[in-house]
Structure formats: C-alpha cells, structure tokens
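Re: the request from the purification team.
They wanted to know what the chain is likely to look like in 3D before they choose a buffer screen. I agreed to run a prediction and write the result into the notebook, where they can find it.
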Amino acid sequence: MPEARLLLTIPVLPVLSIEKTLAFFESKLGFRRHIDSDDYAGVELDGLQIHFWLCTDASLPGNSSCRLNVSGVDAFYVRFLAAGVVKESDAPEEKPWGFREFAVVDPSGNLVWFAEEIPGWVDE
C-alpha cells in the first residue's frame, strides 16, 4: 500500500457570481480560467489554483479569505494598483509574523492576501 501524503492545498472561496469572479481574477489579477461551470469554477496562476463555489448568502464571502505566499509581493501590489484593484493606502506592510503582505477584495467580498516571507525574519 502506498504511503499517504498531502500533495496540494487549493482554497475554495464562496462567491455570489461565478462569471464576475472569473472576469475579475482574469482581467484584474492576471489568472487564467482553469475550471468553469455554473456553480463551481477555478483559476490558476504560476501553478497556484483558487477555486470558487456559488453561494447565495452574502455573509459568507464577506467573512472568507485565502492567503497566497508569493515572491515579489511589491511587484504584485504595483500591478494591482495599476489595474485599480488596490489603493496606495493598501500597500504591503511588514507584519509581526514575518511576512510583508497586502490584500485584494474580490467582487463578492473575499479577501485574497498576497504575502512574502521577510528574508532573515526570526520569531523571538
């Protein structure tokens, strides 16, 4: 019997509109469609996936988030600033847990965090 191993984590976020969400992630954030159906979809960028399920309760996406660990967090911020999805006041900040990060809000209200580990950071 093969050894059991975890292979991949894919966040699955609740959304109020599959089409608006896919359009946002494609046109504003640079992801490409990976899965596309009426009530479930997914996008991909650099081998990382985010999936979405259609919901009718607006409080769910307003209380949901996912975190994407990246390299070049400042470059992502500049790209998203130019695309109009973040403001200058949303610039990446260094956090006490050793990451420099900022968040984007999707059309349904989900927070999508872009975070880069601070080189040499040590938890004391």
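For the purification team: The chain has one domain: 12-56+64-117.
Please add any questions underneath this entry.
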